């Protein structure tokens, strides 16, 4: 569970509501279901024009990714790759086949299977990078839906406000109704800003961050697979892959591996 | 028919009109043909200065692309390419010639014909990528027209509003007319925001998406054609091309091909 | 004559003036020479600080490019290059020299002359691409002047409006003068928006488009010159160059060349 | 101590407060803890949704980097590398091992140790650049937190202002309270602009600058290590590395080294 | 002396002041030293946080570059390089040494000295391009200070306006003081817009332009030095370097060189 995402959302709403209380205004002033429908519905419609339907309908499934922490255990991955590399040196590339079924990650399994099959290195590289490219495109398509939403929500808030202002202006009669009309008109802009800045924009940012983590793990895999195939010295393989970690993570792996040996 | 595009547009308009009703204002308040002419006409004029006339006149033809779903059947394309690859291995590259006429896609046909003619691989690559580049430029020119429109429409809305405000300010006499003048002035901004955000910007986005799909299909073709020419193992060709698909699509192809064999 | 540029400008102004009439306000309300001097003069001054003087003084000469259509006759160029290629194959590269003087385009003439002189291909490539780079830089410098203008004009409009507002605010006395002061203040913003969006921004866009067309023609020339030098098969040369055309243009060339042969 | 960062912040606040005094308004007018909580708290919540929690919690530790000057002594580094290069030429690469323990920088030590171990140059390059990439990613992730904050702070200021305006509009009754409500509403926007422009945005900019300095030092190291390995002439190594310095810094090294020899 | 920069600045100020006169308001209305301190001082503080102190303190020295025209005499440079190339062909590379001391440009001298010393071409290339990179970074760091200023100045104008509005709103009592408070509040925004758009942004743009000119001259030098080393035909060297000039400049060199021979 990503406490940052959940805590941030709850915290944001609590702050806004607390701030309403403190301003002394009645809370009911800020509740207008019609405005909410206008902002959320309208921006969702624009989203459906801008993106393939399937992708927009899946948006909640994608958004959930931002709610769960996925720990990648890069350290464990590296030691797995190093031990594969040692085995390959001792017993030959074919000996790796037995261990493949135990791998959870399909991408790594595929890469190593290509190695075991004796595929040409440049071909392995092209197959794996091609797949990375496709993952990148799928991820950026998903994150673009949130980015689009973060743009359309304030715009539909503004459209709603304009609409309210026009209605209000046409009846400038008594001053009391002017204030209420104006207050109502501003609510859509208010909703639009909240939807965009507590929901769409930060979630898009976290999805991109998650994507970065996943890509780094995949790159460690590609680098490791190619190193294993080219028969690099296992110590060299480790050196190469440790460069992907931060100094702190690196220390952990080193102390661990020195204990293990 | 792309239900997202059509549904999104209809939904957006319905929401805006429903919201007008609910605000209790008469619908007539929001109808001002002169303002519509100003916003749409003015931005269309700017569009004609900014882009070649022919391209602007074709804008509706291009826009229609966003209304129709084009399914690319990547899975079928890959199995076609794999079977070409098998045939080439068994019977030689010349044997491919007979099957070329049945191909619907001219780009693929051209690529394979160059292979059958024994053209140099680097030349094939340059011819095909050159053509991809040209397609990319034509598409981005078309999508730029919508992008420009999405920028000019709100600007002409603002110009109209300024014009209305100036007229209104000069006659600040009675308050009632002030309100009406103001309401009228705001209508152009309102129209500009709607034109841009329910029409131009989302359609531009969907056109780009369609372009991405088409380019991916074309890249599968290029990759396939070059693999066939270099005499790659058909299983390897399939592996290479399947990397373009998402895991879900890949499963479909695999189960299918295992049934077919 | 580029009817789009001229028609768009005239259309834009007609629409704005018609819209003034329709709003019932007197046209005189929108005419304020001092404001025009402020917006156009002020932004022109900023332009002179931001860009070399010579380039700013030449701006009208550059702008005129947007008024004239230049048809590049890519189809004719390609058949010229193909016939050079045929001649080179039959009679050798030296035989091309006689036809060079008839070429109108200096860039193409230079490229072919380098070929006739037996210059090294990598050197030809570097000379021609170097020249393309320089053309690109000159063009983008010219188009940047319009881009800058499109940014400074609205800003000076806003500066003028602020200035007017400050003067008006200091004399909030009688309401009638407030309205007039406000109307006058807004006129600079109004002018700035019109100058930028009917003149600077769309012209910049069309200049870039023209640049794209010219670059494509030059790239066809480079590709053709290098193909001729390397002694490619004329049919292959044609195939390569046709990839630069859109499918419609390609059909025209093909039908023509098949008649001609 | 980076006097620019500290002086700039203090100076900025002093100016703003002095300006409050001079405007004759009571200072208390600008103090509203609830608004501060709304702007800072709200934007911090959005930050936690947008970025990994750990990174947001560390933000102050990262921000402190902007407070301290780190002098990189590029001149000393270059002379160290040149003397290593001389030693390697005289006594062979293995002779470098003794001096490695005295190096403070772990990155340089690692690079030279790989050289001493006789690692393949391309492998050294890949290991070192890989590590540079990872440093780059960690730094840009840290600076992105400040960038995000610089965007969210004004937005939450605006959300607070909208909220205040809505409350105020609903009670347009007596004019006095209108003014106070409006003043209060504007305070969140005021706070948001200050937090973003005296704190977040400039600090992000200085962090990026520091990153640039560090990267340049690391690039000098990589270049030096590879030059030492390839056995370049020490005078050539110096020439190569001096190119990284500005003319002024270069003069210093040259005069120094000529004294030293 | 760059008349564009100076004329543009003077012209801009004259226009603004003339426009103040014409609006009939007293000039004193626009003079408020405290506001000027707030806008200029505040943005300068933010600048000191955002950039290294030394660079901000040097800003005026850098800004002066925009005031002086530096003519690069590219034509003369090219004929110098061509005559070096002729000499090298006739008398060998070592013969160039005598002419080096007469060269004013240190960069060119360094490049040719490396050639005379018989340095490896790839090494020369790396040394020279490395130095170009460093020049580029120093220049862009300097121009970024103006860019930052151009962003901070309007922001501090806005902060000042918000501050003034808050003070004014809290005393909505008599209408006359409202107007004056409002006028005063707007002055900081007015100053910010002027500082940014007559000073910072256009100067940044001109600095970038100057940088482009200098880089082109340096690139001609690199290209020339490498051509001389590889022993290219002097006519070819000229052809290569002339590609950097515009057609007009090229004509001048050609007519000159044909007279000179």
Please give a structural write-up.
- 5 copies of one chain form a homopentamer.
- By secondary structure, chain A is mainly α.
- Helix content of chain A is 80%, strand content 0%.
- Chain A contains 11 helices and no strands.
- The first copy, chain A, has helices spanning 3-22, 33-50, 53-57, 59-64, 74-91, 97-100, 106-116, 121-170, 175-229, 234-242, 247-260.
- In chain A, helix 2 runs parallel beside helix 9 (175-229).
- The longest helix of chain A has 55 residues, at 175-229.
- Chain A is elongated, with a radius of gyration of 27 Å.
- Chains A and B meet through helix 2 and helix 8 of A and helix 1, helix 9 and helix 10 of B.
Provide the succession of SSEs of chain A. Answer: HHHHHHHHHHH
Number of helices of chain A: 11
Structural class of chain A: mainly alpha
Rg of chain A (C-alpha, Å): 27 Å
Rounded average pLDDT of chain A = 89
- End-to-end gap of chain A: 34 Å
Q: Please count the beta strands of chain A (DSSP E, at least 2 residues each).
A: 0
Overall, the morphology of chain A is elongated
Q: Point out poorly predicted stretches of chain A.
A: none
Quick one: biggest sheet of chain A? none
Looking at the chains present, what oligomeric state does this protein adopt? Answer: homopentamer
The amount of helix of chain A comes to over 70%
Largest interface, counted by CB within 8 Å of the partner chain's CB: A-B, 48 and 53 residues
Strand-residue proportion of chain A: under 5%
């Amino acid at each position: 569970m990503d406490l940052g995402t959940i805590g941030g959302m709850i915290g944001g709403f609590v702050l806004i509501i607390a701030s309403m209380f403190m301003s002394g205004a009645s809370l009911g002033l800020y509740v207008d279901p019609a405005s909410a429908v206008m902002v959320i519905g309208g921006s969702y419609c624009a989203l459906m024009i801008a993106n393939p339907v399937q992708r927009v309908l899946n948006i909640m499934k994608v958004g959930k990714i931002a709610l769960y922490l996925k720990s990648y255990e890069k350290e464990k991955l590296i030691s797995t790759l190093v031990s594969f590399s040692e085995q390959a040196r001792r017993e030959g590339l074919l000996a790796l086949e037995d261990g493949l079924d135990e791998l959870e990650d399909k991408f790594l399994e595929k890469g190593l299977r290509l190695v075991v099959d004796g595929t040409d290195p440049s071909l392995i590289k092209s197959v794996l990078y091609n797949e990375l490219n496709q993952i990148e495109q799928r991820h950026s398509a998903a994150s673009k839906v949130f980015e689009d939403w973060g743009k359309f929500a304030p715009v539909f808030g503004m459209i709603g406000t304009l609409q309210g202002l026009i209605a209000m202006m046409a009846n400038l009669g008594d001053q009391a109704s002017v204030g209420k009309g104006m207050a109502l008109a501003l609510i859509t802009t208010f909703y639009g800003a909240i939807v965009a800045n507590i929901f769409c924009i930060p979630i898009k940012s976290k999805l991109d961050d998650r994507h970065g983590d996943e890509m780094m793990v995949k790159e460690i895999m590609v680098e490791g697979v190619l190193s294993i195939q080219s028969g690099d010295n296992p110590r060299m393989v480790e050196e190469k892959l440790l460069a992907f970690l931060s100094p702190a993570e690196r220390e952990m792996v080193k102390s661990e591996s020195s204990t293990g040996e």
